[in-house]
Design a protein that fits this description.
Distance between the termini: 20 Å
Strand content: 35-45%
Shape: globular
Structural class: mainly beta
Number of helices: 0
Number of domains: 1
Length: 57
């Protein structure tokens, strides 16, 4: 799934719903940088966390 995450996509962190909606900034070698509404810019290791795409908008 991580290879499908492209810059501009909206995602949510399944274990941190309070972070809000996030926008993918980059995806390189399984490390995805996401800018979340309530947590700011976070680098996610997609081997550890499966981000959930948000298609509601």
């Amino acid at each position: 799934m991580s290879s499908n995450l492209e810059p501009g996509m909206l995602v949510r962190h399944p274990s941190a719903p309070d972070w809000g909606l996030g926008q993918v900034q980059s995806n390189a070698n399984g490390k995805v940088t996401v800018n979340f509404e309530h947590s700011g810019k976070v680098v996610i290791d997609t081997k550890q966390v499966t981000l959930v795409p948000d298609f509601s908008r």
